[in-house]
Amino acid sequence: MNTSFGFTAIGAGWRIDTERPLPEELRQRVGSLTEDFDHVWSRFRADSLITQVAQAAEGGRFEFPGRDEPLMNLYDRLVTATAGAIDPLVGRDLELLGYDAHYTLIPDEAAVDGRRHRHSWGTDTHRDGATVTTDGPVVIDVGAAGKGHLVDLIAHLLLNGDIDEFVVDGSGDIRHRGPNPIIVGLEHPTVSGRVIGTVPVRDAALCASATTRRAWGEGLHHILDGRTGRPVTDVVATWTIAADAATADGLATALFVSEPAALSEFDFRWVRMLADGRVQWSDDFDGELFL
């Protein structure tokens, strides 16, 4: 890839690499898409649709963009496959742990310990296509797969704009298109500048997640078990390759809370590092690990 277009989206740095510069009109469409996506799904914006859902004291009926129905379909599958360990209604748990709209980063331990009812997707929400109905206020957080979904949406924009070869890098969540694979390093979760291996990616997506990426205190990070509302402890990093970035992103999170065998309905390759330093990988992982 000869040219790069860098920009900021959903609070992170992104880059699109292509053989030729992106036309200005296509750059503007990418910008409009990312802004609208943030306006819909951000927990950190007072004007977002997600904030409206969270503030609806009596619940309500909320129309999401049709383009995001595949994201909700994916969450349906992940919730079922992980028996609720992946759940987009962990937003309130993240808030109580300090990862809230004001970035207080101070957990309310009393509220966490005293919480008696935790909301769950499919029980406290009801969905008809891209329409979500709630019975009361719920805090939706799509951090498990949302960024990957946005990577896919941008990839579709590029394909519709006659861009046949590209790499969309959403701050580490990558989707590649083209005849020549790229070699991606699997970044060590705790040792800066070190990788635990490499893997070729061609016409596919690679996503990674680690408990060290968004951490704000001892044992406090953004990857929660939806059944307990608490940060996970047994796994520290995951890497997944799938046909699309939303699936790879969601499964990278699912590997923190589920054994790989429970995710067998999905077609993906994976590597994960456990808290004790051991590394596990799928039989079909075709990269190189430096163990």
Automatic annotation (TrEMBL):
EC number(s) on file: 2.7.1.180
Catalytic activity: L-threonyl-[protein] + FAD = FMN-L-threonyl-[protein] + AMP + H(+)
Pfam family membership, one: ApbE
Enzyme class: transferase
Keywords of this entry: FAD, Flavoprotein, Lipoprotein, Magnesium, Metal-binding, Transferase
InterPro entries found in the cross-reference section: ApbE (IPR024932), ApbE-like_sf (IPR003374)
PANTHER family: FAD:PROTEIN FMN TRANSFERASE, THIAMINE BIOSYNTHESIS LIPOPROTEIN APBE
The protein's name: FAD:protein FMN transferase
